[in-house]
Amino acid sequence: MCLQKGVKVAEAARKLGIPTQTAQGWYDRDQKDPQNIIQRKTAKDLVGRPPSLGEEHRVFLVGYIDKKPSLTVDEIMDGLSAQFMDLSISRTAVYSFMKEKCRISLKAYFHSVERNSSENIKRRYEWIKRWMETDIDYLSNCIFIDEATFHINMKRAVAWSKIGSRAEVVITKSRAKSTTILEATSPYGAINVKVRKPRAVNPNKKRKAGGGKAVINTQSRSGTVTGHYFNFICDTMDALDKHEEFKDCYIVMDSAPIYKNADIEKEMNRRAYSCVYLPLYSPELNPIK
């Protein structure tokens, strides 16, 4: 710039963002030995490590995810490793490549409209306000109960799809046997866990509640019913009775029909436990979820 445009060293240094002394040193060396100029490499001249993922990986990933859009990133990495044996790459790099080069994004799941309706928001507010006036404490005197059901046709609530397009997951219509897990946990850890697998046994065996009323201990091919839940609650209270810190605690659960059986609540009250039913569409109020 100094030689070609006749600009002074200080002015050239200021325009190029170079310290004046550094620019003056370069100028002086150039005047003494013009052949000894060190040319700086531009970004185009810089040579770095070639990218680990290229076009062949992009083509594979697009086709692989199109077939199974509900795959996790770990499962996608397993597929890449199986297809390209010598590939070594991080999970973050694969995820970035999918977004930037494959133009694929993860679509989040949707929840029901009722969950955030004004009526249910008000119901949750009133529920919280009411129980805050008691001695209930999620961190000390509460037991949280819930159930989870699994079957072979279950899919993730999120899926991959090309940016700008809707995610679609194919689900088989065939019926599948369900496995149900009932769990009770506390701030100190798990209290009781029961796994119920679908099987056919004698449905006539009965267990008596505290008031002498028999509740059918049903174990059929259908889903978990009130009889299973009643027995689980009784087993859970048996475990709680062994520990003084759980005396007179609150048992928190959903408002599903199988939970709100009169015999269940009656048995809990008889054994000095308080039954707390959550408002509808409020999974965030149950830490076990």
Give an overview of the whole structure.
The protein has 289 residues and is an alpha/beta fold. The chain has 3 domains: 2-36, no CATH class; 55-102, no CATH class; 116-285, Nucleotidyltransferase, domain 5 (2-Layer Sandwich). 34% of the residues lie in helices and 16% in strands. The chain is built from 9 helices and 9 strands. It has helices at residues 2-5, 9-16, 20-32, 55-67, 73-83, 91-100, 118-132, 226-240, 262-270; strands spanning 104-107, 142-150, 159-162, 179-186, 189-196, 206-208, 214-216, 250-253, 274-277. The strands form 3 sheets. Strands 5-4-2-8-9 form a 5-stranded mixed sheet. It has a two-stranded antiparallel sheet with strand order 1-3. Strands 6-7 form a two-stranded antiparallel sheet. Strand 6 and strand 7 (214-216) form a beta hairpin. Helix 2 packs across helix 3 and helix 8 runs parallel beside helix 9 (262-270). It starts with a helix and ends in a 12-residue tail after the last strand. The model is unreliable at 213-222 (pLDDT under 50). InterPro entries: Homeodomain-like_sf (IPR009057), RNaseH_sf (IPR036397), Tc1-like_DDE_dom (IPR038717). Residues 237-289 form the Tc1-like transposase DDE domain. It comes from Rhizopus delemar (strain RA 99-880 / ATCC MYA-4621 / FGSC 9543 / NRRL 43880). This is Tc1-like transposase DDE domain-containing protein. GO terms for molecular function: nucleic acid binding.
